[in-house]
């Protein structure tokens, strides 16, 4: 209907143009017709006159007058001739036929005949006058005046005009009709082409194209420039939109809850982790509750809050036992009591063997290529197995159905998935490995490599941070187990049970507006931090935040700072790094020695480059609360992450989230999983001191505009790829898996029933 309106709008001017053309053309046509007739009558008159002249020359002189009259009267028998007159050379009318008007003299007739349009309007009608010499060879010849009736040409002219109007009208309508059809076809093509472009069909095509040639579904040629233009504008709009608002449907706690309601409706979720989400501690003022600063807790807690599940963890607080019920359960969080925390108590031997021994002295260095030798003790392995079994038993005891969703966290529980699978074959077990997975050769040094792999393959889904870790795991299984690997579907089937091996990059919760409102401004944060540490106002401040772990590259970082002060002496007295290092695993020799070494190197550098009131390295070997870390991130000019090997690294993402002023530079090790997501950082090889030194110098001299460009892009990534997406994607995959399982079971049941019905 709309297109019809458009066409009418287009046709009206077309028809108006045709009408105007017709109005202009008709008088012209009239004139031409009359001129043709006039020429025709003149020629005709000349012929008649010639015939008459011949006849007149044959008349004998005596009989001349009567014969002449008879001759002329015969001539006017032609209906188109009105009258004929015979005029002498001196314009005297000798005789005339009956129809010749008395009022018309020979002279007047000659004058009119000499005009361009020899027409005379008489009372009886218009006539065409032709004057012809009887003897053309004589100069003073008599003349014949022939009057032709002009009513016929006039009638013909009217007829011609009528036919002309009919012709133009038909032509106009035909053109209009054809135009409408062509317009309709082109309009439809154009509209569908535009719609396709708007739907993005043309826009996504270049991504799908393999070669350089045009894609088979490319837009019509006339729309291609438009397509290019639209694509450019859309990209700009999208960029701006993403920068301002983040992704269209951002992952947040609400979306995660929605997913649990729809995809895992009513299913019980059980989390297993070594660290508990709430620790009860007895202090001088009674029992207090603390939340460990842990990415894992931040990531998993929204899931638990949404589904009222059960979290099984090692009860490590000194007042933990006081608050649990007879079944070692306590409702948490303390204020809302959304889910249950089931605590497992470990003896000192168990903790030493399972946690410090096998997990932290064995698996941790085994999976991190940081040149610290793993230690494998038979006794640690026994404890590891026993504790895994205790946690697995707790999962089975807490399960309210035979198919709960079990989320197993980290390398402390490599054996648990298969142990749970044995008791609950229909459970959906999602295991997430928070640390890297090494190559098959490195992993092969573990004496219990097969048992560990078999344990992990009890999982339904096995998640790593990066595809690279997935690949290493798959190759390790390929090397040490008899398993069927389907690379296309990322699955490994061991003893007929499939496991989906997938990458789920972990992240942080993007700060809410309420949280951000609590933050000091960057200027205020800088002022407070500078005052606390006694820094000069023009100090270039770098910050490092880590657990005091040898995998974090703290030593390499300090070497790079030392080299910077050597290579660029202008930074002496002005460049400061604040290294926050939370003590961790201090019961282990390796860690204690590492911490001592860092202390010594720090002192050496400060001795070498320190001046009165200035020391280049501030080592704060203590746990900081969240607000203190935020203040540091916001005060700093750069954040330095130099991990020698890291599954992901959350510190760099926390720094990015803290910089809503879009300032500050991130220096990031290429051996951290995060480097694959954050290429806008200054990505370095921490083993190459010179490269890290240059990155420090580059960060210190980077113009604010470049910092803004990089930081804006980094923030966009971290906001979109947040921790809710991490949990959401795993749970969505689990939901799909369960759906498929249910369908398969239904199909199997029906075909079994069908087969039974066939048996007579
Ligand atoms: P971690 O090895 O602990 O995590 P990381 O990802 O950097 O390493 O997380 C450390 C967390 O502890 C951060 O939230 C940080 O703020 C906090 N933190 C560090 N030092 C602190 C201090 N002094 N005071 C207070 N808080 C401090 C393991 C893997 C990582 C993986 C995570 C999540 O080794 O590769 O990213 O799990 O899967």
TrEMBL record:
Family statement drawn from the similarity comment of this UniProt entry: Belongs to the glycosyltransferase 20 family.
Keyword Transmembrane helix: yes
Organism: Roseateles amylovorans
Designated name of the protein: Trehalose-6-phosphate synthase
Phylogenetic classification of the source organism: Bacteria, Pseudomonadati, Pseudomonadota, Betaproteobacteria, Burkholderiales
One Pfam family cited in the UniProt record for this chain: Glyco_transf_20
Keyword Transmembrane: yes
Taxonomy, superkingdom: Bacteria
Annotated InterPro entries: Glyco_trans_20
Keywords attached to this entry: Membrane, Transmembrane, Transmembrane helix
């Amino acid at each position: 209907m709309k297109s019809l309106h458009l066409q009418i709008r287009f046709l009206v001017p077309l028809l108006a143009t045709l009408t105007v053309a017709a109005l202009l053309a008709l008088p012209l046509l009239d004139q031409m017709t009359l001129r043709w007739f006039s020429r025709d009558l003149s020629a005709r008159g000349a012929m008649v006159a010639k015939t008459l002249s011949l006849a007149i020359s044959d008349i004998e002189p005596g009989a001349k007058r009567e014969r002449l009259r008879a001759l002329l009267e015969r001539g006017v028998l032609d209906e188109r001739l009105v009258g004929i007159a015979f005029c002498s050379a001196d314009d005297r009318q000798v005789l005339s036929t009956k129809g010749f008007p008395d009022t018309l003299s020979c002279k007047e007739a000659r004058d009119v005949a000499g005009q361009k349009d020899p027409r005379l309007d008489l009372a009886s009608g218009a006539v065409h006058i032709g004057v012809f010499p009887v003897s053309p060879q004589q100069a003073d010849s008599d003349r014949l005046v022939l009057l032709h009736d002009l009513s016929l040409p006039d009638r013909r002219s009217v007829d011609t005009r009528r036919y002309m109007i009919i012709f133009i009208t038909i032509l106009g309508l035909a053109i209009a009709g054809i135009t409408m059809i062509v317009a309709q076809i082109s309009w439809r093509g154009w509209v569908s082409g535009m719609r396709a472009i708007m739907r993005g069909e043309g826009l996504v095509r270049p991504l799908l194209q393999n070669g350089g040639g045009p894609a088979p579904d490319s837009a019509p040629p006339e729309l291609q420039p438009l397509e290019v233009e639209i694509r450019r504008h859309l990209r700009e709009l999208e960029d701006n939109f993403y920068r301002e608002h983040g992704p269209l449907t951002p992952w947040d706690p609400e979306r995660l809850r929605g997913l649990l309601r729809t995809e895992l409706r009513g299913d019980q979720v059980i989390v297993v982790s070594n660290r508990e989400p709430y620790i009860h501690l007895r202090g001088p003022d009674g029992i207090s509750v603390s939340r460990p600063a842990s990415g894992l807790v931040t990531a998993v807690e929204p899931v638990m809050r949404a589904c009222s599940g059960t979290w099984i963890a090692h009860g490590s607080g000194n007042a933990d036992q006081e608050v649990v019920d007879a079944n070692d359960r306590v409702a948490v969080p303390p204020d809302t009591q959304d889910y249950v925390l089931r605590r497992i108590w470990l003896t000192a031997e168990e903790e030493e063997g399972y946690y410090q021994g096998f997990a932290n002295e064995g698996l941790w260095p085994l999976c991190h290529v940081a040149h610290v030798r793993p230690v494998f003790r038979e006794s640690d392995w026994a404890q590891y197995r026993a504790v895994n079994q205790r946690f697995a038993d707790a999962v089975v005891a807490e399960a309210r159905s035979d198919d709960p969703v079990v989320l197993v966290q980290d390398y402390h529980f490599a054996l648990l998935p298969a142990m749970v699978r044995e008791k609950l074959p229909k459970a959906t077990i999602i295991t997430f490995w928070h640390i890297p997975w090494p190559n098959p050769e490195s992993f092969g040094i573990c004496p219990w490599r097969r048992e560990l792999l078999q344990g992990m393959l009890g999982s339904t889904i096995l998640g790593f941070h990066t595809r690279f870790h997935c690949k290493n795991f798959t190759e390790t299984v390929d090397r040490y187990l008899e398993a069927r690997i389907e690379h296309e579907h990322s699955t490994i089937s061991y003893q007929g049970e499939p496991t989906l091996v997938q990458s789920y990059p972990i992240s942080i919760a993007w700060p809410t507006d309420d949280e951000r409102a609590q933050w000091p401004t960057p200027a205020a944060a800088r002022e407070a931090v500078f005052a606390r540490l006694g820094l000069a106002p023009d100090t270039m401040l770098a910050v490092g935040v880590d657990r005091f772990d040898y995998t974090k590259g703290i030593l390499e970082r300090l070497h790079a700072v030392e080299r910077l002060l050597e290579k660029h002496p202008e930074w002496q007295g002005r460049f400061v790094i604040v290294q926050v290092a939370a003590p961790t695993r201090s019961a282990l020799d390796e860690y204690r020695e590492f911490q001592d070494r860092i202390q010594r190197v720090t002192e050496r550098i400060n001795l070498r480059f320190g001046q009165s009131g200035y020391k280049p390295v501030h080592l704060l070997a203590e746990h900081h609360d969240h607000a203190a870390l935020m203040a540091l991130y916001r005060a700093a000019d750069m954040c330095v992450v130099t991990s020698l090997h890291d599954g992901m690294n959350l510190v760099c993402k926390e720094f990015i989230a803290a910089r809503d002023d879009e300032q500050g530079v991130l220096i990031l090790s290429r051996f951290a999983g995060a480097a694959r997501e954050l290429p806008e950082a200054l990505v370095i090889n921490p083993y190459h001191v010179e490269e890290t030194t240059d990155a420090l110098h580059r960060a210190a001299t980077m113009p604010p505009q470049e910092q803004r460009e990089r930081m804006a892009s980094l923030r966009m990534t971290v906001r979109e790829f947040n921790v809710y997406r991490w949990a959401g994607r795993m749970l969505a995959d689990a939901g799909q898996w369960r759906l498929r399982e249910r369908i398969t079971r239904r199909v199997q049941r029906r075909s079994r029933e069908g087969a039974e019905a066939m048996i007579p």
